[in-house]
Design goal:
The complex is a heterodimer. Chain A is α+β, with helices and mostly antiparallel strands. Chain A is built from 17 helices and 19 strands. In chain A, helix 4 crosses helix 11. Chain A is globular, with a radius of gyration of 21 Å. Classes of the chains: A alpha+beta, B alpha+beta. Chains A and B meet through strand 4, helix 8, helix 10 and helix 14 of A and helix 2, strand 7 and strand 8 of B.
Chain lengths: ~475, ~140
């Protein structure tokens, strides 16, 4: 496979064979050397075969081996003759992140972190078999959640309407159609509203360690040494089931539409087909479930803080900065080759990063650009970025989503053997609680790329600007 | 000597297993055991056990394996059914059998990983000398 450098942190796989467009990978020279023989580059090539794909098959610097699309993959397809692929979204539809700011400073909570973590661990179910803080919903109520998204949570006492303004799509895709979601998916979601999930999902208490753009940070309510909360979760079993259902549907449809793809996990259908539009409607419904889920957990976390710290809401100053999704496909307006039009943008392990003046972002942020939340690992921390005009031009307004794994779970567990991981993290100033026996061992910092390197690539390429760096001090995991 | 029935595969972001069986039925049994070993481990009292009858239709062994595992995963996700024993037969139309298990309780049983889905990624089922072999990757 040919790989040529076209900019400092940008590499191209030239179009050849049945590729419809070239592949483009954002990576540092050091990162690309590590990727040369990685199967994820072949996945970038495979995505370039999708009918109707525009400009290029993109990958962000946190790229790693997924299925179908690489994790960190972005692809835009034309509405009129392009396809939509559930593999370009992933099983965890609208897996995403939200950031909450508070009035608290590190010194206010330093002695109480362990108590806070215990309270959060008890209040927010996270592991498998866990039921939600909300009793099992009826099928009809689940459908209301799928239609309303985060607004359902607000209407039921979890948060305020102001939160919706600071959520991507205001926490609801209007194209959601609950009737396109299977009974099995509905049933899986009924017990899981308000649950964190497992694996790399987490809820963490962060200290704002560094602020790079003080004025913009002030607009976002972020201050150095301030305490923030980051929630990383998605659509839970409901979303996973929607993906499974429609992978099957698409797989059967491809024969009819005479679509051939190099990888079965790239199963797709024309966007304008009955299968394509059905998936869009079901995916949107699952996305709404995820926004509602994060809204509920955010409200539960707020209650934990108020109770554990014995302070008033005014003293806590709890406010949603922003909520982003990093597994989604959306119809968006972009300019390509001088023409403006609607495209279906797939982001699988990639985050929307719209630049200033875009009407899709909250009014409060239109001058500075959309906040982007990039979780790293529980040792090295996370970043808050801002979207840029360059991102609109080069990556369909997309940036990275996280650190990306460098080790398999098996390798990480081997590297963790014989170590007291909770104690190790405590010595690093992080209080951790996890449900799963293997969760901590699989999610240790050594399993991940350095998120700072990932973010630096995006900043040097002009795709995003660093706003702040967050350092975890308390973490709960599934 | 215990016959090796499955082993974990290395995958950067997800979990996978390579499974073995003397015939297709044993392969399906090994795959089920392998998948549940990734989810966790559980022991049940006899009175806690229940049986499920499962039939899957597919003429393609690859699809059959995925549909079989998806069905079992669905039972786990909907009712907490955790497999402890499996008696499955390959049929001309696919497979049919009885699985036994109990309801997984995270307070009593050991949870390892949440499996989101059974993927087609790197999926391979092959009849090899003296038996069958397959590999499956799960989204976690």
């Amino acid at each position: 496979m040919q790989l040529r450098q076209i900019d400092v942190n940008l590499w191209e796989i030239p179009r050849e064979g049945d590729m419809r467009v070239p592949g483009r990978i954002y990576a540092s020279p050091r990162q690309i050397e590590l990727l040369r023989n990685d199967p994820c580059l072949q996945q970038v090539v495979n995505v370039a075969h999708l009918p109707g794909i525009v400009a290029c098959s993109l990958a962000m610097p946190d790229i790693h081996w997924g299925y179908g699309f690489p994790i960190g993959g972005v692809a835009a397809t034309r509405l009129e003759n392009g396809v939509i692929s559930p593999g370009g979204v992933g099983y965890d539809i609208n897996c995403g992140v939200r950031l909450v700011r508070t009035e608290l400073l590190y010194e206010d909570v330093r002695e109480k972190i362990a108590d806070l973590v215990r309270a959060l661990f008890a209040s927010i179910p996270s592991g498998v078999g866990a039921h939600g803080a909300i009793p099992k919903l009826s099928a009809a109520e689940v459908r209301r959640v799928l239609r309303s998204g985060a607004a359902w949570a607000v209407e039921n006492g979890y948060g305020t309407r102001a939160d919706l303004d600071h959520t991507e799509e205001e926490g609801r895709l209007e194209t959601a159609d609950p009737d396109l979601v299977s009974e099995t998916a509905i049933e899986r979601g009924a017990k899981q509203l308000g649950t964190l999930g497992s694996g790399n999902h987490f809820l963490e208490i962060d200290r704002v360690e560094e602020v790079y753009l003080p004025e913009a940070a002030a607009q976002c309510g972020i201050q150095k040494h301030g305490i923030a909360v980051l929630v990383h979760s998605g659509s839970r079993g409901l979303g996973y089931q929607v993906c499974e259902d429609y992978l099957g549907t698409m797989g059967r449809a491809m024969e009819r539409y005479r679509i051939r793809v190099p990888d079965r996990q790239l199963a797709c259908a024309p966007i304008q087909s009955s299968e394509g539009s059905a998936y869009l409607g079901a995916m949107a419904a699952a996305a709404n479930f995820a926004w509602c889920n994060r809204q509920v957990m955010m409200a539960l976390a707020e209650r934990c803080f108020l109770s554990a710290l014995g302070i008033s809401p005014r003293e806590l100053g709890w406010r949603l900065v922003y909520d982003v999704c990093h597994n989604i496909a959306k119809i968006e307006t972009h300019r390509v080759d001088g023409e403006t039009g609607s495209l279906c943008v797939h982001r699988k392990g990639a985050t929307r990063a719209f630049g200033p003046e875009r009407r899709e972002i909250p009014h409060a942020y239109r001058q500075v650009g959309q906040p982007v939340l990039i979780p790293g690992d529980m040792g090295r921390g996370s970043f808050v970025l801002l979207g840029t005009a360059m991102a609109m031009e080069k990556t369909f307004g997309s940036t990275c989503h996280g650190a990306g794994r460098v080790m398999s779970r098996g390798q990480s567990k081997k590297a963790s053997r014989g170590r007291n991981l909770v104690e190790e993290m405590r010595e690093q100033g992080v209080s951790v609680m996890a449900h799963g026996r293997d969760t901590l061992a699989e999610e240790m910092p050594h399993a991940y790329k350095d998120v700072a390197e990932v973010v630096d690539v995006m900043e040097e390429a002009g795709i995003s600007r660093k706003l702040a760096r967050l350092r975890p001090i308390g973490v709960i995991k599934g | 000597m215990r016959v090796r029935r499955f082993e974990e595969l290395e995958h950067t972001a997800d979990l996978g297993i390579r499974v073995f069986g003397a015939d297709l039925a044993e392969l399906l049994t090994s795959a089920a055991e392998g998948m549940f070993s990734l989810i966790g481990s559980a022991a049940f009292r006899p009175e806690e056990l229940r049986s499920l009858e499962i039939s899957i239709e597919s003429h393609d062994p690859t699809d059959l394996l995925v549909l079989w595992l998806q069905r079992l995963l669905r039972e786990f996700n909907l009712s907490g059914f955790f497999l402890t024993a499996c008696d499955v037969r390959a049929t001309p139309a696919g497979c049919s059998g009885t699985v036994r298990g109990g309801t997984f309780d995270p307070r009593r049983h050991e949870f390892r990983s949440e499996i989101k889905g059974v993927t087609f990624h790197g999926l391979a089922v092959a009849s090899i000398h003296g038996g069958w072999q397959a590999q499956v990757i799960f989204d976690v």
